[in-house]
Amino acid sequence: MAFTAEDARVEIANTGEAIQYCVMSLVFQTFFFGIYTLLTGFSTRMLLARKLRTNTNKMIFGLTTFMYLLSAAHWAYNVADALDFMSEFTKYAQHPDGLLPDHTTVSEWSPLWNAVVLINYVLSDAVVVWRAWVICGRGHRKYLWITIGFLFITGITVFLTIVLRIIGTVQSPFKNLPSASVLERRIDILQVTTLITSLLSNLTATGVVGATTLYHWRSFREAFSDEKKQTSTNRILLLVVESGVIYCFFAILTLSFSVIRLPHGTLGDLYTPIQVQIAGVYPCAVLLLVSSQRSLNDSVFVEDDSVLPPGPPKSESDTGSIRFAHHTNPPLTGSQFTIPLSTFSDVQTRLSDVSEA
Fold first, then answer.
1. I need a surface site. Which of 58, 59, 238, 318 has the fewest CB within 10 A?
2. Whole-angstrom distance, CA of residue 251 vs CA of residue 160
3. What is residue 89's predicted lDDT score, i.e. its pLDDT?
4. What is the DSSP string of 300-328?
5. Where is the stretch described as Disordered (predicted)?
């Protein structure tokens, strides 16, 4: 069948619309990447100022650097892809001859890149799970095995998605896989599963940390009924919970947008590159927020935390209260009794005293 002028007009209109979507997504992605770059710079400066003395700081520095470089490479590729897309469209609009291919020599790697960058989801979720594990006492940690299970599934689905995308790129480099093909359907299932398990991992981790926060707040109120201020520990715990809720909100948006159809793909196709940047921003943002509240390092919650009833001071060995690990400062004293304030491990900061604002 001959390619007519009407066919060319329709092809130009459809491609022009696709370019609008592409540019819109790239603009928002660039905005969040700019925020990501600033936060990464601040967090890197903070870690280097501590001269990476601890293994924790070394690991976090390596992890955040790798996540940033992966996001930067993905963003740079998307910029190159958009420029190549517009260049090919300009050439085609001047001399329309047949249908444009689904991919060029640049964009043929786009599906694979979009799969590889999902590694940031796994790393970000791993930071969340590790942080929750360190914060929570042993009585709450048993619930985090559910979270770890979701994290493990997320890692497996991302790995399989990358493998299948490699196969798809080899089989059909310049043409999209048919939506009804077995390979494409399996990739779709894996991608949706990744979004669901990542969301569940964050929800459960945030829920466990929230339960720890509530318990600590109630314990403090029982011990100091007249105290109106929040402890710095409470503020830090609330920051962790609030940041987790916000991240879960963005994860829900990603999952919801994946089922909203557009003339070209889904809304999730446009939003996912943005969520990738947010996944990278999350660990850096929490690091800086908690550090600004004088967070603690190398300290843990102990099992069966409790508050001492009014009475004579007791030794730490006689209590099941929350106490410092590797810390020699004396506990905070109340008007009639002694109670060690609870502390938690933030993987980014040095050991510091719990203090009131």
1. 318
2. 21
3. 78
4. ---SS---PPSSS---GGG--S---SS--
5. 304-333
pLDDT of 116: 93
> Phi first, then psi: what are they for 214, rounded to 5°?
-65, -40
Pick the CATH number of 5-318 from 2.60.40, 1.20.1070, 1.20.120, 3.30.70: 1.20.1070
Closest of 322, 332, 11 to residue 140, by C-alpha: 322
Q: Which residues are within 8 A (CB) of 23 and not within 5 positions of it... i.e. 6 or more apart?
A: 82
| Phi, psi for residue 266 in degrees, rounded to 5 | -125, 165
Reference 105, options 174, 162, 171; nearest CA is 174
- Identify the segments of the chain with pLDDT beneath 70: 1-3, 5, 7, 98-102, 174, 220, 223-233, 290-357
The pLDDT value recorded for residue 194 is 92
Q: Which of 228, 238, 247, 224 is nearest to 332 (CA)?
A: 224
